[in-house]
């Protein structure tokens, strides 16, 4: 496939919606062959069709850990390599702490932590063969400070921050950089719905954000692209907040 000779290959989980879609668009615009992974084939296909030849998709429920090794082997067989992995796919649950069941907690952790570990492990095996690669995890401000009603999500994203540092220390000597983007309150369909229905929460968010407004998915995509690219060749183990100052706001 001559198209790919000088083209980097990226895998973006959850790449057909929200922050993942913005990242996919940024990568494609930078001539990166991007394979998006998710559960919803209709969304994946629509995105790939819209973005053209540099975007392909694979259907996989990442909560099914046993399916991940075969997924990565399939991508390698078809595209030859994986230079960049963006662990973006994630799910949330907004519920009072005492009402969260064991099953609900485990479901969030399975998708947001366990699948990130498994797909990273499988991709790292390929990257080690080449001695180069870049992994970007997506965390959250929920890992920076306490937010009510998202205990499972908070636990999961805090784990992602820790995994990023541990992976970076172990893998960077072998040529693989591992970094993390921690989005603050970003204007997406999901967040708009949540905040618009809760004016008090929205005011609180904006009042402690020094820049005074919500970010957009493209803000996160730019940060992911920077960390994934050679521009960040001396950056590893970083957790980069993209939050308008929310995490340090008073």
UniProtKB/TrEMBL annotation:
Record Gene3D superfamilies: NAD(P)-binding Rossmann-like Domain
Keywords, comma-separated and alphabetical: Oxidoreductase
GO molecular function, one term: oxidoreductase activity
EC class: oxidoreductase
Pfam family membership, one: adh_short_C2
InterPro entries registered for this protein in UniProt: NAD(P)-bd_dom_sf (IPR036291), Sc_DH/Rdtase_CS (IPR020904), SDR_fam (IPR002347)
EC number, UniProt record: 1.1.1.-
Protein family (similarity comment): Belongs to the short-chain dehydrogenases/reductases (SDR) family.
PANTHER family for this protein: SHORT-CHAIN DEHYDROGENASES/REDUCTASES FAMILY MEMBER
Protein name, as recorded: SDR family NAD(P)-dependent oxidoreductase
Source organism (scientific name): Mucilaginibacter calamicampi
